[in-house]
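Researcher: I'm comparing several assemblies side by side, and this is the next one on my list. It has 487 residues spread over two chains. Same procedure as the others: predict the full complex and return the structure.
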Amino acid sequence: MDWLLAQVQIRSRSGEGCVASNGFCPDWIADNFDRYVAPFAEHVFLTLVSVGIGFAIAFALALLAHRRRWLTGPITGITGVLYTVPSIAAFFLLQPLTDRGNLTAIVALVAYTLLIIFRNITTGLRNVPGEARDAALGMGMTDWQMLWKVELPLAVPEILAGLRIAITTTVGLATLAFFAGGGGLGKEIYADINFKSNVVVAGGLAVLLAAVLDLIVLIGQWLLTPWRRAAHA
Amino acid sequence: MIVPASFGSQFSDAIDFILHKRESVSGGIQVGGSELLGLTATHLYLSLAAVAIACAIAVPLGLWLGHIGRFEFLAISISNIGRAVPTLALIAFFIAYLGVGFTNVLVVLVLLAIPPILTNTYVGTRQVERDAVDAARGVGMTPAQVVRKVELPLALPTIFGGIRTSAVNVLATATIAPLASVDTLGTPIISANVYGDAGRLGAAVLVALLTLAADAGLGALQRAVTSKGLKTGAREPRRRRLRISIPTRRGHAT
C-alpha cells in the first residue's frame, strides 16, 4: 500500500522563478539531465526485452499457424484478449502471481505485443505470391527450405511493419510500467507531474526512443530486402 | 516468487470489494460495492464522449481526404506519431500546461482517439473499388452522393475497426484520468492508500472486463454494419472455385 509513495518520492526542488513556478526551464534541464539517464536505460531495457520475447513467441505461433491453418483463429482470439486488456490493469492483475517488479512489467508488455506481431507475420506469409511458391516447389525445395528461403524473406516488409508498431506501442506502454514496479521514464513523469520541464524532458525522451528504434528497424528492412532496392534503382 | 496460496485469496478479496462496500483503508469513508457504480459511470461517460467527439471530427475528415485521394502521408503518419506519444506524457503535459479537470482529460482522450479513426476512414475510403465509384458517377450521382451512398457504406467495416481500436484505447487510458483529478475506475488503482490492495485489484478486474465487453460489443456492431456483399461468405465460394481450377498446386500452400 505504501509502495507507490515509497517508490515515487515527490521530489523536492529548490530554485526560484522558473523552477518554483513549475515552468519550462532550459537551465534546470541542462543541470539535471543526468537524472534521466538511468530511467532512460530502464526504458530501453523494458522495451527491447519485451519486444524481443514477444517477437520470439509470436514468430513461433505464426509458423505453427502457417502449418496448421485452423490454429489461426484460436491464436488470434487469445492474443486478442491479451491485447485488449489494458496494460495498466494487467500490471495489477499479474501481481498476485508475479509480485512487483520488472518481471510483471515484462510479462504484461510481452502479452501486448503478441497480437500485433502474430497478425503481421501471418498476413505476410499469406501474401506470398503463389507463383513464388510454385517455383520453389518446382526447384525441389522442401517445405522447410521454402519457408526460410522464399516465404519468410518475401514476408519481411510486413513482419517488420508489425515489429515497428509493436516497438512504438511498447515504448508508450512502458511509461506505465512503474505501476508494476518496473521503473522507466514513466516513473520520472509521475514523480513530478506538475513540473513542465520534467514532463517535457521525460515524455520527449520516450518519443525520441520510439523514433530512434523505428528508424533502426527501417534501416534493418532496407538491409534485409536488397531486391526491393534493385527494383527502385 | 509465485505464491499460489495468496493468489486465490487476493482475487476473492478483490471480488468481495467489487460486490460489497467496506471501510476504506485510511478510514472514515465507505468504498467498494455500489460506490464503484459512480466511478464506472464517469469512466464510461468520459470514454463515450471522447470517442463520439473523435468520430465527429475524424470520420468526415477521413471521408473527405479519402474521397479526394490526397494527403495520404498526413492521414497515415498521424496515427504512427500518435502511437509513439505515451499517453501518460500526454496527460502530464496537459496537466502541466492547462491544469487538471474533466475537460482536459476529455481533450487528451479525443486526441488519442482521432488517429486510428482517421487512418481507418481514409484507408477504408481509398480501398473502395474504383469500378464502384465510376459506376456511381456514371449513373449521375453527385460527389456528395458518391460519398454517402457508395464510399461510406463500403468503408464502414474498416471505419468501425478504427472506432473499436480507439474505444479500447480510450477506456484503457481513462484509467489514468485520476492523475488529472477526474475520478474514474482508475481511482482505486491510483489511490491504493484509500482503497487498499483489494480495491486496486478489483478495479483492475473491472477495467479489464469493461474493455473486453466494449471490444466484443463493437466487434458485433462492426459485423452488423458490414453490407451483405462485403461479408466473406459472399466472396469465399468464388475464390475457392479459382483455387480448384489450378490442379498442380499443393493444398498446404494456399
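Model: For your comparison table: The two ends of chain A are 61 Å apart (CA to CA).
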